[in-house]
Structures are given as C-alpha cells and as structure tokens.
Amino acid sequence: xxxxxxxxxxxxxxxxxxxxxxxxxxxxxxxxxxxxxxxxxxxxxxxxxxxxxxxxxxxxxxxxxxxxxxxxxxxxxxxxxxxxxxxxxxxx
Length: 92
Prior knowledge:
This protein has about 90 residues and is mainly alpha-helical. It has helices at about 1-15, 15-55, 60-90. The longest helix has about 40 residues, at about 15-55.
C-alpha cells in the first residue's frame, strides 16, 4: 500500500504524459491484488461449504481448491509484474 502511495506521489510530481502511465501501473497492481483476494476468498468459502455438505469428498475438493487458488495467484502475479514493468519503462 505504501508503495502504491509513493507511486501516485511520483506520478503527481511528473508531467502529465508520464504521470498517467504511473497512475495506470499503480491501478493495475492494486486491481490485481484486490482481484486475487476476492478470488481466493470465494474459492475458500465455496470449498468449505462443499466439504460441509459432503465430508467424504474432502480430498477431491481440497485438491481442486488448491489448483484453482494457484491459478488465481498466478494471474495476479503476472499482472503485478506487468505493472512493475510499465513503471520501469517510464523515465523522468
């Protein structure tokens, strides 16, 4: 969070052509984190509900949950790396 605040302060100090790119990189990183949090929260909640309904299928549900959570985290990491690359391409 502090990194994004510093990124927005740097964008405000930069010219309008460079500032928009930095703001876009900050928003992209923030949305990646929020999306990953929501996705993993939904996955965990639905897996818990499924295990409560069918305790005998616990192993299958947990395996599917871990795979889905890893895919969500992979996408979030990819978006965060792209946001940092965008930030690195902008020079002052």
